[in-house]
Specification:
Length: 451
């Protein structure tokens, strides 16, 4: 009471003489309200900072040989980086200004030409494509545009870690199903040996299921889903009236002549499939953060609405340079000049080198069929090293953190790609990225040998 009267006196002295007490009380309430009582939106309840924050910080603090994050530590293809320099010097000054919101005309035209050829149906540049801030935004728009509160979304484990929080932000319920490796094998296994149990999968479908998210080629396993596996998934989608959200960002990184199969090309799937791609992965320039989604007009229009009301338009010069990159790649498609061929050939060699080093060190790798990550099983090695200096978290997290801090080699604990209930399935594994220059892989090899 005393404080209130004092405040009123001060306000009146400050020249606010002619206001009534009611108004002054309101001003005082506002002045004295504690901002601690302002809470973030309920939809963020339970959401945490992602693993990348901690592991990027560990890399900064301990300067390990970094096989953690997925990008090359050598130059991106020069025909695309040079295209960006050319764009900056282009006499068309409008290339420095806003472009079409749903995708720069030259880029959507290139994407439409490429995918029309690949899925053997016309992909309309204006109605079937949306350009986004990386594949990340394409995934976000797809989930926000189609998932209602209470809807169930089937997520295959291990999964790219943003799927789960995105589904939860939309109010949906993630329903998990793990890929399982064969047990008690005496041979070195391939990512193709990690399988979905199709009966278990069918049990995950219900009348609440709205969407299934499939990532092929897969991060972190490198599994390339076969036509047969995708056909079984497609049949379930049709049977239960479900959308397939296909994350195909590693579509150009495939080994040993395996084939990347596109769900959008399957009979009766065009109208229930959204396919997501990434220029970051396609041209090895992850910092450019340009991605896209394509599908039928019915599928893509709702994504355009989310994009229009959040991002609105992506960077014009980047889109123009990527469009020029695609034009070159389309012209070189299937020839020895193709960057995508060079990329797969180069990464296959790196994969083989990494597999050899890990096998020799008893860190049994699953040989990836695509992408640029692999999982290695460290259970045999774990009996011989002492990583008890790290006491918090799951076993794979403790081992990975110990490897970074004590041995200066960075990987990622794969349990972050699992729901809590299934994290035990990968407690003996670590993920490495092998998209690194030979010197980096050699240094990593030395550390692994010494383990
Ligand atoms: C499976 C998968 N999907 C999506 C993304 C995100 O791609 P972008 O960098 O284009 O947003 C990544 C990035 O690592 C990924 O591995």
């Amino acid at each position: 009471m005393l404080i209130t009267n004092l405040s009123k006196t001060i306000l009146r002295r400050g020249g606010i003489k002619f206001f009534k007490d009611d108004f002054l009380n309101q001003v005082i309430r506002t002045m004295s309200a504690n901002s601690d009582s302002i809470k973030s939106a309920d939809r963020l309840e339970g959401h945490k900072l992602s693993v990348w924050n901690e592991f990027i910080q560990l890399a900064t603090d301990h300067k390990p040989v970094n096989l953690g994050q997925g990008f090359p530590d050598y130059p991106a293809p020069s025909h695309v980086t040079k295209a960006l320099v050319d764009v900056q010097n282009d006499e068309n000054i409008l290339l420095q200004q806003y472009t079409r919101g749903f995708g720069h005309p030259r880029l959507v035209k290139a994407l439409s030409k490429l995918y029309s050829m690949l899925i053997e149906r016309p992909v309309d540049p204006n109605n079937h494509v949306l350009v986004t801030v990386g594949a990340y935004e394409a995934l976000y728009c797809s989930i926000m545009a189609w998932v209602n509160p209470g809807d169930e979304v089937i997520i295959i484990e291990p999964f790219f870690d943003c799927y789960k929080p995105m589904v939860e932000l939309a109010g949906g319920k993630p329903v998990f199903i793990p890929l399982r490796p064969p047990t008690n094998t005496s041979y070195v296994i391939s990512s193709g040996d990690w399988k979905l149990d199709m009966t278990e999968l069918e049990h995950k479908f219900s009348n609440k299921t709205k969407m299934i998210i499939v990532n092929t080629p897969h991060n972190p396993l490198g599994k390339v889903f076969t036509r047969e596996e995708l056909t079984q998934i497609a049949d379930l989608c049709k049977k239960y009236n479900v959308i397939a959200l296909m994350d195909e960002v590693y579509e150009w990184i495939i080994f040993n002549g395996k084939q990347h199969v596109r769900m959008a090309s399957f009979p009766d799937m065009w109208d229930r499939t959204i396919t997501v791609g990434s220029a970051g992965k396609t041209f090895s320039l992850t910092g450019w953060k340009i991605g896209w989604a394509y599908g039928s007009e019915k599928m893509i229009r709702p994504l355009q609405l989310i994009h229009q009301n959040s991002i609105y338009v992506c960077a014009t010069p980047l889109q123009e340079a990527i469009a020029r990159g695609f034009e070159t790649e389309i012209a070189n498609y299937g020839t020895n000049k193709s960057y995508w061929k060079e990329l797969s050939d180069d990464l296959q060699e790196k994969r083989d080198e990494m597999v050899q080093v890990l096998t020799a060190a008893n860190m049994n790798p699953t040989i990836p069929e695509g992408g640029y990550f692999l999982l290695a099983d460290f259970s045999e090695l774990a009996n011989r090293v002492n990583y008890s200096s790290i006491t918090d978290g799951t076993k794979d997290y403790r081992f990975t953190k110990w490897l970074i801090i004590e041995k200066k080699l960075q990987g990622i604990p794969p349990s972050v790609f699992y729901s809590e209930d299934h994290q035990k399935l990968v407690e003996n594994f670590i993920r490495f990225c092998f998209f690194k220059k030979p010197e980096t892989l050699a240094k990593a090899g030395e550390i692994i040998k010494k383990l």
